[in-house]
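Journal club prep — side note

Before the paper discussion, L.F. wants everyone to see what a predicted structure for a comparable chain looks like in token form. Sequence:
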Amino acid sequence: MAANTAAATTLTISSKNYSSWSLRGWLMAKLSGVAFEEIVVSPDDVAARAEILLLSPSILVPCLTHDGAKIWDTLAIGEFLNEIAPTAGLLPADRMRRAHCRSICGEIHSGFTSLRSALPMNLKGHFPKFKVWSKAQGDIARVTQIWRECLETYGGPYLFGEISIADAMYAPVATRFRTYDVPLDDVSQSYCDRIFELPAMQEWIAAALLEKEEIEELEVEF
């Protein structure tokens, strides 16, 4: 399928260093095996910058274009990729497991606003002994609870056994935990390490480290 869709599929993303939503959509596309052309919007672009700084009311990047259809919501991208590349297993085959996967993906998609604000994604940054807001601590506790429950229930190594949309959705959180030296329990730390070991994650991070653009607001220890 990848060979047939290469010319018809593009994925528009913004900064690899700062954009958590771009990372989610890109990981899903990589995991699907569908070949795509990558289109990068500069973080200096007004709309892209607003999204990265949490100032935009909507999230329009990443945007997947396939045979003329445009899909810009990250969960919708994952669902669509699962439809056109079903053998990739982006969603679990079991109905109950699939419902659970969708539930925790929906939770990260619409929630954890304190964590997003307190720990913005910055792959090139490292802020040891960073003081995390108390509200963000609650979000961190909930994320790690989700991880532990999924890993215990489905046996790992990923949240639903085999790698899925859920791992792509939570991958940016793993980067935040590393950037800000967030202390984690052993199970959660091992899961974070596993996410960083993914070849696709290593490819993304390598490209992020080469980006020259900086968003000053996200480079300050606050």
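L.F.'s comment for the group: Residues 1-7 have pLDDT under 50 and may be disordered. Keep this in mind when we get to the figures.
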